[in-house]
Amino acid sequence: MSAEPAALEARELTIRHGRRRTPALRDCSFRLPAGRVCALVGPNGAGKSTLLTLAAGLRRPTAGTLRVLGAGPAESRPRIGYVAQTRPLYPRLTVADTLRLGAELNRGRWDQDAAERAAYAAGLDPRSRVRALSGGQRTRVALALALGKRAELLLLDEPMADLDPVARHQLMGALLAAVAEHGTTVVMSSHVLAELEGTCDHLLLLDGGRIRLAGATDDLRAAHARLTGTASDFAPHTVVESGPTGRGHTALVRSRGPVDGAGWLVERPSLEELVLAHLRNPDAPALRTEHATPTPSQEAAA
Ligand SMILES: Nc1ncnc2c1ncn2[C@@H]1O[C@H](COP(=O)(O)OP(=O)(O)OP(=O)(O)O)[C@@H](O)[C@H]1O
């Protein structure tokens, strides 16, 4: 548990789309402290976009609660920047008009410089109509609106999917600057695990609508180890994934006590290794670190 303010706090969050029998999210409980850059990862259909739409106040949960910046999602909407996977924009407006509309809708908090930096960094013409933009250019404009809004919480659905490598680099720079200057919290869904490694300091791994891993990336990595040795018994540690290697056996384990001194070669897994091992092994127990655990609710404490 933590006294740090939470950007998101979910308790038993469940949502069923329409009449679907299987919920898109099931009993998800987690806490995302404010000021983090959180990678939201998981396979196709895991529930990532659904979670972002709930946080953006565009859908209501079937059961459970989600607090956003300490309030209900709808109430917090003015403080949130949400970039949907479809990048909805007005096709007839020019890029400059789109930013003007952003300024109009966010009077008193609009940051024109930040919006223009994001939109025009690659030489995009302000007079271009939105309908004539490429997928990556639309993404730039959608991100420019979110950054110009000086949102306290940015909810970005696969923001890097259609950006070229230079634009990805620029986007990460702009996001990290917002975090450093304004304490912005960023939640970013992505399938490009290697790209998230150096940028994200928090991870939410969803699979089948359930939370598999939640916590600071350093804490999650520190809770695991890759052990390689001649024996195949890795007790007392919990094996997430194991297999033979040229040198004997190797396993990615959730450590229970010290891992040194037992004759194993010990390595700290990368974020990508950790995520892949959990996705390949759906029976591995979920892990939510202390800082990612919701504080006891007032009703529960009463
Ligand atoms: N509007 C909808 N109506 C019915 N079912 C939906 C709707 N939106 C999502 N779903 C279902 O909810 C589940 C979660 O979908 P969601 O889009 O949240 O996954 P995702 O993790 O974002 O996937 P991807 O990586 O492919 O974008 C899937 O089974 C999907 O089919």
Short description:
The chain folds into two domains: 212 residues, P-loop containing nucleotide triphosphate hydrolases (Rossmann fold, 3-Layer(aba) Sandwich); 75 residues, no CATH class.
Overview of this protein structure:
- This protein is α/β, with parallel strands linked by helices and 302 residues long.
- The protein folds into two domains: 6-217, Rossmann fold; 218-292, no CATH class.
- It is 29% helix and 27% strand.
- The protein contains ten helices and 14 strands.
- The chain has a seven-stranded mixed beta sheet, sandwiched between helices. A four-stranded antiparallel beta sheet has the order 11-12-10-13.
- A hairpin with a 2-residue loop joins strand 8 and strand 9.
- The radius of gyration is 21 Å and the shape is globular.
- The protein binds adenosine-5'-triphosphate (ATP).
- Adenosine-5'-triphosphate (ATP) binds at residues 17-18, 20, 24, 42, 44-50.
Characteristics:
Rossmann fold; 29% helix; alpha/beta; four-stranded antiparallel β-sheet; globular; binds adenosine-5'-triphosphate; 10 helices; 302 residues; seven-stranded mixed β-sheet; single chain
